[in-house]
User: Fold these one by one.
Assistant:
Number 1:
Amino acid sequence: MQSPLGDRLYRTITTVCAAAIPFVLVLLTAVVVRAAWPALALHAGDLAFGSTWDVPRERFGAVPAIVGTLLSSLIALAIATPLALGVAIFTVDIGPRRLHEPVAFLVNLLAAIPSVVYGLWGVFVLIPLLRNTIMPALLPLGAVMPLFRGPAYGPSLLAASLVLAIMILPYIASVSREVLRAVPPTQREAALALGATRWEVVRDAVLPAARSGLIGGIMLGLGRALGETLAVAMVIGNRHAIPDSLFDPAYTMASLLANEFAEASSDAHLSALMAVAALLLLITLLVNVLARWLVQRVATGLPGSRWT
Amino acid sequence: MPRLSLSFRRVGLPALALAALATISACGDRRSSRADSATALTPSGTRVDLTGAGATFPYPLYSRWFNEYATLTNVRINYQSIGSGGGIRQVVARTVDFGATDVPMTDAELASAGMPVLHIPTVIGAVAITYNLPGLARPLNLSPDVIADIFLGTITRWSDTRIAALNPNVTMPDTDILVVHRADGSGTSYIFSDFLTTVSPSWAAGPGRGKDVRWPVGIGGKGNEGVAGQVKQMPGAIGYLEVVYARQNRLPVVHVRNAAGRFISPMPFEIASAATAVLEADRKLFASDSKGTPDLRVSLVNAPGAQSYPIASFTWMLVAPTAIGPQKSRQLAAFIRWALLENPDVASTLGYVPLPSEAATRIVDRLDATLAAGRPGPP
């Protein structure tokens, strides 16, 4: 039987839409790699293993930027994840019902604030606070923990990680909230019927069932942290060196691109920046593959899944 | 509240209307007085569109110039401030009629462009060094070698004897120096590193000159506002800024020792003096027997002359006559004549330092001669 015209049209439109995304991605990758090619051919070793970024002498070592990108994102994730899960659990299972919506609304509002505003907040509020209060308080710890060694200028890996943590919080929180809400009520009721306390219900019945979705949310946050540009460039101190301590200035790949692209005039410099962009694309891809793999492993192999 | 709004209606509105009228009539006067000389510049009556792109530093001045020029003539000039690097790229790619840059093209860039690209100075820029030393009674005096060693990280404390020697009768605090530099590529960094390269052999052997250099110490701020913000917040900090930004924000500036041994603050007269002194010293640029437009990619740093501020530079318009043809070249030359000779006050009112009038006249005359003769001339 011939399918009606509407069906065929609908099918065509959705196919085109679905094909457009991979097409754009492939095109984008192709353009970036093509522009990066001269640098990849000439400086590949330097880009991947060198730590000297010296434009006039055409040395393009991207290791400090790569390390800074990974460190700032992972620290941000370590700060934001517990907070976001706390918010999500509160607004689904624990807190008073009339607070659920307002709290979720306020957290989502964080996602609507433009990046530059976070940067300005970082420069004018967070950095003075870090330099005058938090860093001096932590410096004595530096004697035993090298993470907290000074000099404490303010603009630092820590400042960037804190700003990033606040920026990715709403993404993780709102995905987690939806995931927790999707856990069937029967799950909770069953646990309650077995005499579980509210905390035990969340811990043993809700979180394990939601685990794969939660990891997805966390990875979404990580992806955003890796690519964040402006706010990071404003607070990280923009120094091409691998940081020894949380108080050291550092660099990220995205802020390097934002800082140097507009005024780059030599072909070698432009191409090296494109190569950094290609590397960033690759790292983001790897993170997503890793996330997929984690989600699958968690969804199939771990004890929590026996309820799902 | 109602009373307040009533009083605004009674007094505020008529006042506003009066002010508006006054502005309009003032504009009208200015226009009519200049119209005669300007209409003579463009003989044909058809509308002409020119496009340009490049440096952000002169953008406020250029857009003012272009707007005023458009009201006087039939020439509309559209300018995108995409940065000096972009300006050079677009001129070479022939996607614009002219470019603008704070950093002159290198010989290699000119050679690979495959056509002559004229560098036409339009206005003078300078870099101010700002600092945060609470309680310092007098302006800080620094010499070029000390500045270089601070930015190299060789001098690390404000109480250093070499700083003290330059500032007698001032107690320098015994604190660390924190260097703040630009993180984004910038003509300001180019001028400053050009200065450091000129005055310090160890800087020349180390970081060298460029829009992005490898700063040995310190933290990077994004834009003038990023550097200024971090210097303002951190006691003990020192950084460099585009001079108009420093002046508008009333930041303390270092008095820099010039080639003649005097400590000079970056004021308009002292900045213009650097250009006058360099053009005087380099007489062959305008020697009467040389033909065509001279190569004006000259650096103004560490200029001779008792009054010269040592960290100054031209900013240039880039014109490739062979790429845009004689007609557009002549239109651009007419604009440049008008901007540099008939309208230098605009630059001063916006905080820029106009070219000294004698230098401007020579540049414009040579430019006209070059383009009228259809000769591309040297770069």
Number 2:
Amino acid sequence: MTAYGDAGLGLLGDPTRRAIFELLARGPLSVQQLADRLPISRPAVSQHLRVLKDGGLVDSHAEGTRRIYRLDQAGVTALRAWLDGVWADALTGFQKVAETPPPEPRQETP
Amino acid sequence: MTTTAPIPPITDSATVAVPIDEAFRVFTGEVDAWWPHQFHIGAAEVEEVVLEPRVDGRWYERGVDGTECDWGRVLVWDPPHRLVLTWQINGSWQFDPDPAHASEIEVRFTASGPAETVVDVEHGSFERLVGGGTINDAIRGGGGWVFLLDGFGAVVAGRS
């Protein structure tokens, strides 16, 4: 039961891991490709990938000399973990907007 | 390959210091203002998140390039108390039009005071979503993880 909750909050609670996860959601990438897209070093990327892999959210395979990472084949688990964080942030956003007094009526541009 | 075990729902709630009608109006009518735009599915950055305010209305993102990407449908439209949406992005991170494969988001609005509302969200039925067995093919197929739905792709016209 708690495994899913842990997956969402623990694995994707870290902003860098979430960034890696979201990049992989757009397509498989190598460690180097991930490092090129993120402001962190290649070893740091590898470390985050190991955590994501242990958590069952991503898997990897060898392509030539490179190791390619992608979201795990059991994609619903990964999707759910992603949504866990999405809803938490979305409701925070909702609360902010709902409690912000309505702005002055916007002027129509002629 | 097949997932039979039920997947626990995501539950969350927020208490907002506005009357129930206003809470419902903002949740539905201003979804674009509060949904964090970094959470999206399409290839392009999000221009707008749209929730059509009626049963069977669409819930979708429109990218800056004008393409639309469906997320689901409105199943229950009961202002200001209840809203049920489907989430039809599956384990391959693609829109699945089959209603039998839809996860469901139930949103309940409860007045806890004249100007206070509790909003409970339960996103469940994840086991109905089809898993990611084809994720590799889908992702490698070219263009990445794009499921720009040509079939639904009538761009909302007349807005500028």
Number 3:
Amino acid sequence: MKYVDEYRDPELAKGVAARIAAEVDSGSSYRFMEFCGGHTHAISRYGVEDMLPKNVAMIHGPGCPVCVLPVGRIDDAIRLASDPRVTLCTYADLMRVPASRGASLLKARAAGADIRMVYSTLDALRIAEAEPAREVVFLAIGFETTTPPTALAIKQAKAKALRNFSVFCNHVLTPIAMRAILAGEEDEATPLDGLVGPAHVSTVIGARPYEFVANEYGKPVVISGFEPLDVMQSILMLVRQINEGRCAVENQYVRAVTRDGNARAQREMDEVFELQESFEWRGLGMVPHSALRLVEAFAEFDAEKRFGIHTVAAADNPACECGAILRGAKKPTDCRLFGSLCTPETPMGSCMVSSEGSCAAHYAYGRFRDRSRARMERAAS
Amino acid sequence: MSLVMKPVRRKLDVRNGRVDLSHGSGGRAMAHLIADIFHDAFDNDWLRRNDDQASLDALEGRLVMTTDGYVVSPLFFPGGDIGSLSVHGTINDIAMAGATPKYLSASFIIEEGFALADLKRIALSMGDASRAAGVPIVAGDTKVVERGKADGVFISTAGVGVLPDGLSLSSDKARPRDAVLISGSMGDHGVAIMSRRENLEFGVEIMSDSAALHGLTAAMVRAAGDALRVMRDPTRGGLAAALNEIAHQSNVGFMIDEELIPVKPQVAAACEFLGLDPLYVANEGKLMAICASEAADVLLDAMRAHPFGREAALIGHVVEDERNFVEMTTRFGGGRIVDWLSGEQLPRIC
């Protein structure tokens, strides 16, 4: 696969790993948060952590749109789908996310709700056109990456005067969430030394929106691609910034990211969406100006208005540590449900649902390392 | 001359007709459907007797029996259809025991309204597959259900085979240091199906690998004999599920090497696009074998000498591990678990 295999070359990886090992200060520790679940997935799937020195730790952040959606919003989606007039269209990962009282969209579908998995907003639009007697609601979720396609679908629906299409908007914003994590960091035991920023978000918004992280919080950021070599190179760039006493936003993903991003995509988003005053994130609580809603000009396509949705906050399972794990304050293995009551087959928390969730990635790919390491440490002592 | 008029038997309008409830009623319409569609396609002495069962000569050796249901969507896909798949799948279940498949039966559950032309096409494909494999379909059944109660057509096939004396392959027989071999590239069938199901076009046609593997397994048994411990066709859940099942049943672990597992570039690219892992994607014409390590080279040569095993590869070894983990050295140089699939593989959001 041209343009993919190049970024998974084991010889190059060995070279970058050797550079990281040579450049880290053995007396220091380096804690880097990869904000995005895509990075968590790549790190786990390719075994990147095996190739890092012991004093470089990767902290899995909240950047999985499925993981950060609060229980109350999934309850809303289930209520919506249970309306016999409604066909709810959604991305597949969301189907298994636990809602209140053990419910999920998958269970709602089995009970008779018309819930359909789609690959794009345009699939939902096509269903609305093909079935004019149904109220087709697209459950929109995701960071800045998936927001422009939702904006386009809403504009198309308006252009086609589709009366039976609406969007249940749950689009959230990356830089604001990053600020919430950094602002709450004083409460956490071990601070972060740098952040790996998601490249796909920056292809839309550019690198500039992260400059506050360097300027106000004094932490370096490297915007990184999602291939394992991208991630390793980004880690090396962070190590170098720290060793040189620098603190800036650097761009590893120069093949697609610019400082200012994609102006057209930003215009489309601005035309259709505006900031919500506040939005609840799983793990972060209510975060001001961290999510989007439809502007008045497109209000007719807002499912919340059309169906009178008023979200009622619902609590996570009290034993579930997803909140602390999403903030990077705890590791999946710090949760007493991990791997016993909470597994990918029976997820108790959202981090165990999506393959990009910290717990699911660690369970699927990394859990053998814990025991191997424990064994090695026991042998050494 | 008789005064009683004999009714003129009109052939089914296969080109334009559709299955209706009368075709499952047990009456004349059903008899015509069976005669014109299934008997024509499967034609053999047993079916021509029109009995409710087939009388078979006693077989020497131990009997192996299996049954399987086929509910694939879409019914027709690049490289095959539900008909040939239902023949290949059941033959392979028997072949994985090291047995020789002898007879098949087939049961059809057809949805009212299903096009007779499609049914004929499926039956002809089954007939071709069974003749090519040398395994006749000797008994069958047809049911028609109301519209909406099935998805076109469901097929169940059962198979009987014979096992040579002394051969005993089983999923609990893998031992540490045994070699793990596969017969070819992983993920072709699942990606071929998905490319049609989701209307995704990848620029190149990805064909299902659906095939009857009893010729290949016979050659493997001849080459490796007792050194062969387990054979398994990695269908649903792919190679990952097959390895995890065997790890638990044999109470061992596996250490495999991603670099050694063949995956066609177009399959790898499609999986990349969909966010899927080819190790979890279904195969219908591939097998995995575990054998004593000293027999690995001989077995590999025998596999590569067969048309369905040309790309055979040794991909790893059985290891001692009370946790029954399937571990893999990634192509990138790191390590990871290849775990059971949780639910179904779902494409990621971003």
Number 4:
Amino acid sequence: MNRAISRLTGISIIIIVIIAIIAALFIFTMAPTPTAGGTIKIGFTTSVTGSLSVEGTRQLHGIQLWQEWVNSHGGIKIGNKIYNVSLLYYDDQSSKDNVVALYERLITADKVDFLISPYSSGLTFTAAAIAEKYHKVMVATGAASDSIFQQGYKYTVQLYTPGSLYLKSTIDLLLAKDPTAKNIAIIYEDEIFAASVADGAKKYAESKGLNVVYYDKYPSKPTDLSSLLTVIKSKNPDAIIGGGHFADGVLLIKQAKQLNVNAKLFSIVVAAPEDKFRDALGADANYIMGPSQWEPDVKYTVNYGPSVSEFINMYVKRFNETPTYHSAGGFAAALVLQAAIEKAQSLDSDKVREAFNSLDLKIFFGAFKIDPATGLQIAHQMVLIQWQGGKKYTVWPTEAASKEPIYPKPSW
Amino acid sequence: MIKEISYNLRNLTFLSTIGFLVISVLILFSGSQSLIAFFLTLLELLILTYSINIITGLTGYVDFGHAVFYGIGAYTAAFLIVNVGTANITPYLFSLIGGLAAAFFALLIGAPVLRLKGAYFAIATLSVSEAVKVIISNISALGGSYGIPLARYVSYDVVSAYLAMWLTLLFAVILTIWISNSKFGYGLRAIREDEIAANVMGINTSLYKLIAYVLSALVAGIVGGISGILYVYVSTEYFKVDISVKMLVSMMLGGQGTILGPLIGTLLYYVIQYTLVTSYPFLHLLIFGAILIVVVLFIPEGLIGIIKRKFKQLKVR
């Protein structure tokens, strides 16, 4: 009994020591690693595994490509010194608890100089709060939600066009092509993202003197939209715009054809730019438009960074696939950060954030300019794609278009 | 002899648990934010593991939808913070109410769901969790599928969340110890071994199961509330099945139905996972999978099984 107890005490002590060693090990491994002179460290987490892994991996590829590009082009110059860029990233598994542990680590232990957001608005909500606490500049990419930028954060700046502006380019195209257009119908899925898209479209349309003759929502994941479409038909609008996600966007077009609801222009968010949209609708996809953050066939002239074709060539050569807007968003996020650092001529977070306010860039991803107070993106335009003969072309804005839009859309 | 083994194990359990509680307090004074954040998410998983241990570990009812209580706790706290406000009160008070809401929900669904056994129970709990998730994503007052951002109402603060989490851990540990040593706990274990026999022996099995279910929901709900405040954002992600699986894996790694098991299991799961994620961002799942397979093949009763065997050897020699 006594021997057993003394052995027991021994084992207990060993266990406690092991726990203590684990703890100590972490203190040790988390000790700040000294920054090598002449290196700028950029940290982020991305979703290499988990539900967002496809988009997350593409975004990572974009950022990696930028790092190779900038280092092989002489790095970033601040004063007389040349800085190379190193990336530090972890897999957040698309999970919020990893975002806290890993962003805290990136900032306080790994001592990165700047941050890039994780993929998706949900994870960026939390990451932005951490960036704010440590006054670290973070470029948000893959996060389109407006509401991140309504939280009073200063240090997070947005690359993507926010949700409320998704349909702005559609309305611009309509008015440019057809100054006599008067009436539009907005129909959207009942959830916050689509609602903010629709709300933004309604305000913009009215400010341009259009009549919003129909404005209504349908329940999330609908199976039938015929009653709403019948009402829309009776209003005879020039354009029908809106949508929500993939399945309901497809349903909307299918039933519009069945009920012979015609309009000169259809613009459907999220669903239309997907290749699966054409697979689901076949020839009915033709003439349908939809907004996208970026497309490989855009024609932008750039005043900073690589041109569109240079980017695509580099990307295809390196990863053997055509870049999507997630890949382009990764590269572009790092590129605008580079521009801000060069403008600030400093690695100081506040100075770089200040420099962002006066940036007015035209890069291969499109325009970049933020609202100084909130960091919200105000210049980047969604390009508008249109399906023509089973192929997807960018048709708007004109400076990015690879084909002329077909307007008005022929009747079904 | 058996008495001595359990006596020894009890000592070991007591020392390690106290040791861990002390170490996790000392972490606060280390001054390293990343260490605190690391331990904070560790504590979060640890409490959740203690919580699922009460229902699944003790009664053998595998709860695949345990995340539903975590989610309800988070949504309740977030909803109250937005609509009631946090003037003069700590927002963590709302996480307590979140726990109560989760417990109430467990009380409602417990009676029908706990009639099912084995795989049917697992599937039913999973469905309940998914159903609640879909319902919440359709309620606009709860932010629909875009969730509730809280950054305007509470500020992101690791240290205060850590304190709240630690107190909840203390509660979960005391609760687990109390249950394990009470008549109630023996009743639950009897249900795990043979529910019909337990019933015949005079245990009100439905009531026992329901109480265990409600208590485990209470703990998970409080954690959900604290997490909502910590991450300053609540969304339907909180109902993800991954969260339930994480709890189950940590519990089984350590050894289910014990006091020490969840602690050892979670420490092992979390430390390995974190180390792999940071060192091998692309390969970590592969390596982790291999480790899990080895554990399941060679020590299916969890690490606590090895410790128990060690004690037996000590006495036999």
